[in-house]
Amino acid sequence: MSTVSGIDRFIFTVATGRCGQSSLRDIIEAHVPGCYPAFEEPSIHTVLPRPFESYERRFRRQFIETHELLGRGKVLKAFEIGNDTFIDRTAAKRLRRIQREMATRESAIYFDISKFFARGLHVGFLKAVGKHALVNLVRDPVCNMRSFLNRDKTFALDNNRPDASSNILRLACADMTASDFYLWAWCELNLRFEAMCQSDKVTHAVEIRTERLQDAGYMNAAFDALSLVHSPVVSQPPSNTNRERGLNATVVGADDIRTFEKFLDRVPTVLRSRIAYLQDYNPWAFHQLDPAAAA
Q1: Around 127, how many Cα atoms within 13 Å sit in the side-chain half-sphere?
Q2: pLDDT in tens, 20-47
């Protein structure tokens, strides 16, 4: 039971981004009554027409639905330097917003679906909410890397530096490529999930693999493992894909896999062994590519 008034349960998602958060939100909305799946909140709902909309958006992200409430900006820096006081204060503001939002809904379960949660806000959230459940929404690391590269995103906007002392996987980043940065984030987020699961406040911890979000039986089992009351899941197509945005589809090639294997050599064996996804993962077999033929 949650210690936050008016909310019975909190479920938090650990996610790299580009790993099916929008699709998971759609599945929950369709099949889990009494649950509010909050997708990268607080979102911005502009009211001004173009061309003023972009100015309104910037203003609101700066002063109202701020980068910090989302989990960016000063939160990333605070996590890097261990400034828990700032993170606790920001998480408390977010919780007050969440309580107000939930009060307007017939929902008792708050399901946070955001890549920003585990980037720093988790430090404050998990102190404040008491018992909670965790979901590791994890995509094949090579696909995840390639999808980010296709989006041409700015890594530093959503991530702290890999060499920060607050990280579990600390790597020098002077010689890192764009691919390496996203592969580091994939490993780091999986390690943070594993570390969060050690808390006695965690009531349920479930891994959901992106490639199986359209597998109805798999998703039924995942919701059961979270003790969620739900209707039988019906498969539906993925949402918010690169192709939908007019970008290149996420197609993995042999060079992508070699980049992954080269990066993995930098990850200490003791840390690699703590990432559940990697224990039975063969990228060549997963992507149906022959390393000999691709050489």
Answers
A1: 12
A2: 999 999 999 999 999 999 999 999 989 9
Q: What is the distance between the alpha carbons of residues 274 and 23, in angstroms, rounded to a whole number?
A: 27
The alpha-helical segments, DSSP class H, found in the chain are 21-31, 52-63, 67-70, 74-81, 84-103, 121-128, 141-151, 155-158, 178-196, 216-225, 254-264, 269-272, 283-286, 291-294
Q: Which residues contact 253 (CB under 8 A, 6 or more apart)?
A: 289, 294
pTM over 0.85: yes
- Assign residue 86 a region (left: φ > 0; alpha: ψ between -120 and 50; beta: otherwise): alpha
Helix (H, G, I), strand (E, B) or coil at 269: helix
What are the distances in angstroms from CA 192 to CA 50, 122, 273? 41, 10, 14
Chain centroid, CA 27 distance in Å:
16
Per the structure block, which two tokens stand in for 28? 């929950």
Cα-Cα-Cα-Cα dihedral of 107, 63, 23, 14, to 10°?
-90
Task: Determine the Cα–Cα distance for residues 281 and 275; give it in Å rounded to an integer.
Answer: 10
The alpha carbon of residue 55 and the mean position of all alpha carbons in its chain are separated, in whole angstroms, by 28
Confirm or reject CATH 3.40.50 for domain 9-294, answering yes or no.
Answer: yes
Q: Write down the domain spans for the chain.
A: 9-294
Q: How confident is the model at residue 292 (pLDDT cuts 50, 70, 90)?
A: confident
Give backbone dihedrals phi and psi of 36, rounded to 5 degrees, phi first. -105, 105
From the list 283, 279, 276, 293, the residue with the least C-alpha distance to 258 is: 283
Q: Which two tokens stand for residue 183?
A: 């592969």
Q: What pLDDT is attached to residue 188?
A: 98
| Cβ-based neighbours of 221, under 8 Å, separated by 6 or more | none
Q: Kindly report which listed range (124-138, 216-230, 241-255) carries the lowest average pLDDT score.
A: 241-255
What's 231's DSSP letter?
Answer: P
